Amino acid sequence: MPTYSHSQLSTYETCPHQYRLAYIDKIEVETESIEAFMGSRVHDTLEKLYRDLKVTKLNTLEELLAFYQQIWEKNWNDLIQIIRKDCSAEDYRRLGEKCIIEYYNRYYPFDQGKTLGLEEYVYFPLEEEKGYWIRGFIDRVTLVDSSILEIHDYKTSNRLPSQEEVESDRQLALYQMGVGGKWQGIEEIRLIWHYLTFDMEIHSSRTPEQLEQLRQKTLELIQRIEADRQFLPKEGPLCDWCDYQGFCPKRKHLIAVGNLPPNEYLKEEGVALVNQYVEMKERKRLLNEEVDTELTKIEKALYAYAQIEEIESVFGSDHVAKIKIEMREKYPLKNDPSRKMLDELIKKAGKWMEVSDLNPWMLARIIGRRGWPPSLVNKVKEFCSIEESRSITITKLKERE
Domains of the chain by range and CATH? Predict the structure, then answer.
């Protein structure tokens, strides 16, 4: 039966192509971002804290930090990627350490409730008739005052969401659906996010109506996934952190040439072609600017020549330039502040339909026919301005026999 997780659904929303690579093609990648590595080590450390508490062992902060350092060194490998070049592995290690220290100091002696589960697995039907199921792992489940269930989740991201974003978060709400009815006597379920890098705790809750809305939205997302036949890549701010860049048509060339030495990089066919293309486009742009400048100069000279000689056609060897210089009446357009006043004037005179919703060209044409009363024409012309219109039309001369 089709089974989905929150992370799986989020992957599709972030990039359908990444979803296909990870969950359909099931391509395994060896790389891992330093952010994900650090987050896993912090999770492991907090899990140890509460797992040992279940057997009445309260670790000191020094013991937890020693454990964190130990698992950091044990799991570290050369495939861990640091995208932000201004930060080192040690910077991230210290950040994780800071998260643990602040969490420890905030919640010591950790008597806020009874821990019922750590990395608690949930698996429940989202839609039994269609056979859709949801699975996931809850960081920690706590019982408070025998009737309040808390679902805790640890986040080590460097972004703090707004309360509105938390209220619409899908992950913990799905977990609430998964634990509903699992323990007897529960009257309230609280959703709690621990944003460790900010030393902040954010609370939320869901009503039965909100959970039903979530169920429907999640079903719609699943149906959209199953109807997708293309799984097109979608670029976004998280692309640099994607483990599948080497398989992505939008990124794999970047990855392929990224580690080449400078001399090999510049000779790589794709890099060379793009560089040549950009160079030619720039040369074309500069040439166009130069040509446009010269054309403007010649046009001005032609207009001046035609006016001085009082002619409308200037002949070259094979072409004739027909010069047209006229003064046109210009009426305000719709975005002009005076347009509304002109509209009202025409409407009151009963002439609105004659000017096609006050089309400026039609208005000038009708006034030119002199069919309107002079008093109305004079009032309308108060809104008129005069502008010069110039044009040059080039026509090829017929060959002489």
Answer: 112-215 (3.90.320.10), 313-396 (no CATH)
